[in-house]
């Protein structure tokens, strides 16, 4: 006589649920392993390439106008040239949304001037020249006194700044945008007997760059 064994529906459901749980766990571990390998690969590429931030140096700066109307409205005209260099051997750089301006003792003394975007190849250098203007810019009431004090001291110090966004390029891969800031310090002779315009500085000076 043969025996027939039957399983209750509850028992079957438990076994089926156990099988499904195991399948989900296998898929989860498979995807986790895959993403871990991808992340490790990206991290390895980053460690291998690790792009260095671009280098900037000021080559020339000229002040054509720096005059007050009344006590606190400034008109200015400044031109400067800087050298931009990509020190990376395997990483290119896209520069986007570049804007330059001049500052004096923490005050912006020109409007923003926008530079065209460009691409910089491996270990490539580019000269950037821009003209900065300011008309009727409000400045602190102490501005005139500060300029006279610098003239007595025989020199004037300006900060020439460039802000923008950059993208790294490795092969065909291009990164997201990273904000960067460049600050160049220009020291010019400005004694009582100095010519009225332009005041010039032709001494190369390294600029600080933050990415």
From TrEMBL:
GO terms, biological process: defense response to other organism
PANTHER family given in the database record: NDR1_HIN1-LIKE PROTEIN 26, OS05G0367900 PROTEIN
Localisation per UniProt entry: Membrane
Membrane topology, as annotated: Single-pass membrane protein
Record's protein name: Late embryogenesis abundant protein LEA-2 subgroup domain-containing protein
InterPro entries found in the cross-reference section: LEA_2 (IPR004864), NDR1-like (IPR044839)
Highest taxon of source: Eukaryota
Pfam families per record: LEA_2
GO CC, one annotated term: plasmodesma
């Amino acid at each position: 006589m043969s025996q027939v064994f039957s399983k209750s529906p509850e028992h079957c459901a438990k076994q089926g649920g156990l099988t499904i749980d195991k399948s989900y766990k296998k898929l989860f571990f498979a995807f986790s392993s895959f993403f871990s390998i991808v992340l490790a690969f990206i991290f390895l590429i980053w460690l291998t390439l690790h792009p260095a931030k671009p280098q900037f140096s000021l080559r020339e700066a000229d002040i054509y106008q720096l005059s007050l109307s009344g006590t606190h409205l400034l008109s200015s005209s400044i031109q400067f040239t800087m050298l931009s260099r990509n020190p990376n051997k395997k990483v290119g750089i896209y520069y986007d949304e570049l804007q330059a301006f001049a500052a004096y003792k923490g005050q912006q003394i020109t409007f923003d001037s926008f530079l065209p975007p460009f691409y910089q190849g491996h270990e490539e250098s580019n000269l950037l020249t821009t003209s900065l203007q300011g008309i009727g810019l409000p400045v602190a009431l102490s501005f005139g006194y500060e300029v006279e004090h610098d003239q007595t001291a025989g020199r004037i110090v300006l900060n020439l700044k460039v802000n923008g966004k950059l993208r790294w390029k490795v092969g065909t891969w291009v990164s997201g945008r990273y904000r960067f800031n460049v600050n160049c310090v220009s020291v010019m002779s400005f004694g009582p007997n100095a010519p009225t315009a332009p005041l010039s500085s032709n001494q190369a000076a390294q600029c600080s760059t933050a990415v």
